[in-house]
Structure formats: C-alpha cells, structure tokens
Amino acid sequence: MKSPYEIIIKPHITEKTQTLSFGPNWKDDEKNVRKYTFIVDSRSNKIEIKRAIEAMYNEGKKAKDEKISVTSVRTINVKGTSRRVGFRTPGKTAGFKKAIITLAPGQMLEDWGV
Does residue 114 register a pLDDT over 50? Predict the structure, then answer.
C-alpha cells in the first residue's frame, strides 16, 4: 500500500488552477464548490488519489465539520512534448499525470499552493 505522500507529488499551480480554487461564486462561501489540481503518481487511480487527499488534509483534525470530503476526482495524462536540447539535438520533456479534485460545497484547502 502506497503512502499518501507517494501518491500526491505536488500541487499544480497556474493562473487557471488558481481561479478554479476560488470557485465560481467566491462571495458566497457556504455554497461555493472549489477545485484543486495536483500532480500525482502516474500509476495511481482515482480511488487512491481521493483517499490520499483526505488522509493528508484530515490528519490531526478531530471535529467532523473541520474535515474535508472529496466529491470527485478527474485525471489527465499529460504527454511529454518534444524540445530542442542544444543545437539540432532532439529531446523530450517528461509526461505526468494531473488530478483535479472537487471538494464538497463550502470546503477549502487551507495550505494549498503556499
């Protein structure tokens, strides 16, 4: 069994993922649905990713209303692109797997992207 820290590699922070993390109606926090993006291990599946996120962010929290719950996980395999390395030398960047996590309404990750 893999540890949650082996499954979740790092958060994937771009301008688009920052706007997803604020949610569509960021003024009303109780109904707001937030989405977060992470780079994950390419061999992990959606169930493992969901359990890893919940285990990482619910660690040490005792109250039920403080705990987060993941409602959906969407995964994308990003292929590596060909690049030039030096003068006329072909190269390739590494591919990775990206997961978009949707939380229950009104919930947010406090230390995402810091």
Answer: no
Measured distance CA(22)–CA(66) in Å, rounded: 19
Phi-psi region at 49: left, alpha or beta (left = phi > 0; alpha = psi -120 to 50): alpha
Q: Which CATH architecture fits 4-103?
A: 2-Layer Sandwich (3.30)
Backbone phi, then psi, for 99, in 5-degree steps? Answer: -125, 130
- 38-62 mean pLDDT: 93
Of 26, 4, 11, residue with least CA distance to 98: 11
Residue that is written with structure tokens 């060909």 in the block: 82
pLDDT at 26 over 70: no
